[in-house]
Every structure is written in C-alpha cells, then in structure tokens.
Amino acid sequence: xxxxxxxxxxxxxxxxxxxxxxxxxxxxxxxxxxxxxxxxxxxxxxxxxxxxxxxxxxxxxxxxxxxxxxxxxxxxxxxxxxxxxxxxxxxxxxxxxxxxxxxxxxxxxxxxxxxxxxxxxxxxxxxxxxxxxxxxxxxxxxxxxxxxxxxxxxxxxxxxxxxxxxxxxxxxxxxxxxxxxxxxxxxxxxxxxxxxxxxxxxxxxxxxxxxxxxxxxxxxxxxxxxxxxxxxxxxxxxxxxxxxxxxxxxxxxxxxxxxxxxxxxxxxxxxxxxxxxxxxxxxxxxxxxxxxxxxxxxxxxxxxxxxxxxxxxxxxxxx
Length: 319
Known about the structure:
Blueprint: H1 10-20, E1 29-32, E2 41-45, H2 55-64, H3 68-72, E3 75-79, H4 82-94, E4 98-103, H5 108-116, E5 120-124, H6 126-135, E6 144-145, H7 152-168, E7 174-178, H8 183-195, E8 200-206, H9 211-218, H10 242-249, E9 254-258, H11 260-274, H12 280-290, E10 299-303, H13 310-317
Parallel strand pairs: 2-10, 3-4, 3-6, 4-5, 7-8, 7-10, 8-9
Antiparallel strand pairs: 1-2
Helix pairs in contact: 1-2, 1-7, 2-4, 2-7, 7-8, 11-12
C-alpha cells in the first residue's frame, strides 16, 4: 500500500539535492527573447540533464533513498519515456536491474534510450499503464516499485529545481510547469512556496488533455472526458488521482490551458531565439506564459524535457 500523502518539507528537498548531486546537474536559467509578448520569461533548461529530462532528479533520489535490501530486488516503474529513463539511469548507477512498464505509443527515441540504459521494456496500452499508476500494481511484476509521480522521494527530487530557481532568480514572481501526473509541479511548488510564499505556481496543460483544469472547475479530482493523444506525450494525463489532487492543492495556485498550436509555436520560438530543442510537454510552460495569463514576470518556465524524434521536431517547428 502507498504511504499516506504528506507535505514535501524543505528539509527533504535539501537532502535530495545532496543525494542526487553526482547524478543530476544544476541546469541553467536562460532569458528568452519573447518579442512583442512583453512578459519577462526565463527558461529552466531541464532538457540539458543527462537523460534530457527533469525526471532524472526524482528517479535518482527515489532509487538512492531505497534501502539496500529494496534495491537488491531490482526496481520497476511506469513511464511514457522520461521517468523510465530517470529510474533506469539511477538503477544502472547502483548496478541493479530495472524494468519499465512503458506506454507502447511512446516516441521511439524514448524507448531506445531506456533500453540503452539497461532497462527491460514491457509495452502496454496507455489505459493499462494509467491503471497500473492508479493501483500501484502490475500483474507479474517483481522488484521494488518506484512510482513515477505518487512517490514522496520522487517529488522531493523534483523539488531541487525550485531551490535552484529561487537562488538564481530571487525576484521571480511566477513559476510555470507542465502538469501530467502532477509530480513536477508539486515538487517545484513545494520548494518555491517554502522559500517565497508569494510566488505564483502555475500549471500548464494542453487543451486535449487538461484534467487538472477540469478538476478545478468541478471542485475535486476528475477524469478528463475528451482526452485525445497528441505530440504532447509527456504531459496531460487522463485524470487527476485523489492523492495527487491532495498534493497539488497545497502548492499550485492555478493552471492555464493552451492549444496544440500555441504549444507548437512555443517550440518554434525556443528553437529560433534560444536554440533549444524541446518536446511538446517541455513547451507547455512557455506556451502558457506567452498567452499573457501568467503575468508580466519575471516568469520561470520549466522546459521539462527535450526527448523528441528529430524528424518530428522539424515537422512541428516548420511553418
């Protein structure tokens, strides 16, 4: 059974930073020329992590914090690609086997990278993966389960981004992060709110998969009624679980829903102005900031990852 939901204290995030210091890197904060948008936007470039995505922070902390006995049984997780890479990277560092229950429609780039890190891949449908994430189980799977979002240590690891943001930009007024399972924004929000309670923590979701916005409208965790797959494969879940609703309510102020075209244009803008390759989920935060709904700034947009097939990237950013 999963442990009871509890807040992520600043002390746990600071300990996580020490624990992952040899695995994840401190990523730069780069100002984006947003043109006529007027907002002062900074990019937190998590696409520069060794696995090209932020989830190495949570994966490294979660695996490192396991007992020797739990690690010795091997680890397994559920992923559309980036979480699997983070856990696999950490498992390889400890010399233990890793299995990833992977969404079969994940980009080939992500599947290949998980295999290259030594992970065994069990392909499943999106529905089966989401059921496993909600139940914390998968039939026939052995080893220690490292949940990709409903895991205290995973979230604390992601919180280390919040420490860096406040240290590098003390005048920050808003932080925008994509919402998938809710782990990224919960971790970052926990750190930011502990250090600067007045900073707004804002989510970003695609119009095709916006369960948190839908849940806010209905006053509680909901399943998104019109979920549609898109190139934004690393965010935008089918529902908000009760446990993640409880976690996010404490640290997330609001969310912004963006169109797929706005997301595509954000990918193009980052490529043109900052030479940044971002996957769809990584561009959601910038798309949200570019709507003007996140304020004038300074705004930090978390570019959560850059794991995208280059041909697909070129197609999306072309006019």
